[in-house]
Amino acid sequence: MNIPDKLKYTNDHEWVKIDGEIATVGITDFAQSELGDIVYVEINTIGDIVEKDSVFGTVEAVKTVSDLFMPITGEILEVNSALEESPEIINNEPYESGWIIKIKIEDIDQINQLLDSNAYKNIIGG
User: Fold this and answer.
1) Level-2 CATH architecture, domain 18-24+31-110
2) Alpha helix ranges (H) inside the chain
């Protein structure tokens, strides 16, 4: 299971990459493997400020639909447009080209509430 050390994580299996006041968000390798083949990603919140722990979209797999939860409060600046045509990118490269959204961080202190890679590995039994 790939759990990069440089990222932060949530209990809901989202990952966060911080770059100044911008954060990139996606779902973890563990999450995509549990969901199975991803067939659709829906994000209707672009331009919105979404509060931490609120739903910002959904990921649909062959067997299930799963909500996506905002890891930190922020304004959704960009949605990965490549996922419209090829949502399976998340299955193949969850931490690289399979990112889901980019946000402008509203409260940088919320980053301290996220998990590091070791804490996340403990949650998933890794």
Assistant:
1) Beta Barrel (2.40)
2) 29-35, 82-85, 89-92, 117-124
Domain boundaries, the chain: 18-24+31-110
- pLDDT tens-digit map of 4-22: 999 999 999 999 999 999 9
- From residue 14, alpha-carbon distances to 20, 63, 120 in Å are 19, 20, 10
Is the model's pTM score more than 0.90? yes
Structure tokens at 93: 């490269």
pLDDT per residue as tens digits for the range 24-34: 999 999 999 99
Please, which residues bridge with residue 104 across strands?
22, 75
CA atoms within 13 A on the CB side of 10: 20
* Cα dihedral 22/60/113/21 (nearest 10): 0
Cα separation, 41 vs 32, whole angstroms:
12
